[in-house]
Amino acid sequence: MSIQLKDALAPGVEVSKEAVSDENRINAVNSKKNSFNRVALKMLPVLVLGITAAMAAPKPIVDTRNSLHATTKVVATGRKLFSLPSPGTIYIDGNAASNGFEMQRLTEYTVSVNEVPGATSYVWSVGNNAIIDYGQGTNVIHVITGSYVGQSLSFSVQAVDGTGPGAGSEISGTLVGF
Length: 178
What we know:
The protein is of the alpha+beta class. It has 2 helices and 11 strands. Strands 1, 2, 5, 7, 10 and 11 form a 6-stranded mixed sheet that branches. A 5-stranded antiparallel sheet has the order 4-3-6-9-8, with no helix packed on it. The protein is flat. It starts with a helix and ends with a strand. This is PKD-like domain-containing protein. Pfam families: PKD_6. InterPro entries: PKD_6 (IPR045829). It comes from Mucilaginibacter agri.
């Protein structure tokens, strides 16, 4: 919509050259906004179609396999499996750990896995009752446990290469102490 200053003024009032120039700039900006809105509305069906197509992607299939020392999750999306295997057994201070392990509260530990051939880094996750002090990105992390006796602990790790993360290993246990 174009605004005309001369239509808004009382009869007999003159419009300055500066006011006409400002009026032209305002009308030009409004014209560009309307042009942009027309383009945005034309693209809306494409955006909706893209979102609908993304929502129709296949859901992951999760297959959980238990080993003596770790739980390995193998996930397939219907297109390809992970390129890297699970890191396997998780070690706590050099000893193989299994589900149900116990750790002392407020204590420092080294948690590790064997190196996975082809891995360029490792992604670790720890539960609420421990923190990673250092080592994220490597196959060995240094952790400090929390203070609440009887609370659960968990560690999980995935090896990563140029195509993304591989299958993971995870264990869970409990904090003990006085």
